[in-house]
Design brief:
Largest sheet: 2 strands, antiparallel
Distance between the termini: 25 Å
Shape: globular
Number of strands: 2
Radius of gyration: 21 Å
Helix content: over 70%
Strand order of the largest sheet: 1-2
Amino acid sequence: MRQKSFYLLLAVAVAFVLLIRSCYQADYTVAGRPVDQMTLAWHASLIVFHVIAAAMFLMTALLSMGLFSRDREDGSMVMLLCRPVDRWQYVLGRIVGIWLLSTAFMLILHLTLFLIVLANTGMMIPGYLSASLLCAVNLLFATVLTCFLALFLPNIMAAAFTLGVVGISFLSDGTFQAMQSALLRHMVAGESQVALWRILFPKVYMLQHYASTWITTSAFDGMPPIYVVANIVFYTGALAAAALWRFYRSEI
């Protein structure tokens, strides 16, 4: 947080969110029918919610990729570990610190959008901030994965691999979610089978989509929500344990 570039990035992000406030003050016509301001605000806010949550993966990966290498280079790692601090405390402390910082960044952007809607329409979107907090679970997964990979891969490769996992999840599960209606129509023909790897793959997109249902109050189809949350929690815990194991075996 001492880096000025972080605050500059936050200011730019908030400015971009503020630019959409004019969308709530215009008149729109779809298929010859006027769209009321409440409906427009609801749809626009949902889209921006997904854009912010998805864009936060990039920032989280960039913050996490050089976490341990920076501490090695400037001597912070040695300074901390020569005190009564165990290695697991150091690793988890750094991971949780990055996660809290990323979560706060995302909450500020979502809160900015929430206040824009409230100021322009007088409408409070229920579940908006709660959905943002649920997306923080995804950020914890991205942080742990990047930190784990950075222990034995170059920083840029660790970040690229994390973004690749997130991208595959969005493409695979996003396509599956979009094809739900088609799958239901062909269920009798037996075309609704899903590959095993897609079931076991980290459900990053599904968790974000489940969070969005808290805003839309619509049903979450495709798989049980408890499995989606348990999937991400399992991968996060397993990767954290692997990062601790790797760090304990590394020489400082």
